[in-house]
Specification:
With about 120 residues, the chain is mostly beta strands. The protein is about 0% helix and about 55% strand.
């Protein structure tokens, strides 16, 4: 499957997950009700904007930071992140983000539906 730029739906959020400020998203959502990939976002968080802390029940998410710097709220701790960092939030955990820098934060977000681990199944 090839996801073309024109396949990404553009939207703007004023309070992403209860945060504040402006977040721009180019989004592709995979078909519902399947295991594996859930969504793909190209996300830009304006300076001073936040993505509110939110849980991930039943799905996992990666933030791949491409440009800018931010404070990531990772399950109760705060960590500085920047270009090249990958932030992983497993199912049942929470994260959020504050762009406390002076430039937009650009990241790729990959959401994955929780899959059953085949190593735990009986034969």
């Amino acid at each position: 499957m090839i996801i073309r730029a024109q396949d990404l739906r553009r939207r703007r959020e004023e309070s992403c997950h209860g945060g504040s400020g402006e977040v721009h998203i180019r989004e592709f959502r995979f078909p519902a009700g399947r295991a594996g990939f859930r969504l793909l976002h190209e996300t830009t968080v304006a300076p001073g904007a936040t993505i509110g802390v939110h849980p991930h029940p039943g799905h996992e998410e990666l933030y791949i930071i491409r440009e800018g710097r931010a404070l990531l709220h990772d399950d109760g701790r705060t960590v500085r992140v920047g270009p090249g960092d990958v932030c992983y939030t497993p199912s049942g955990h929470a994260h959020g983000l504050v762009n406390d820098g002076e430039v937009p934060l650009k990241m790729t977000v990959v959401g994955v539906n929780r899959c059953t681990d085949i190593s735990t199944r009986s034969s």
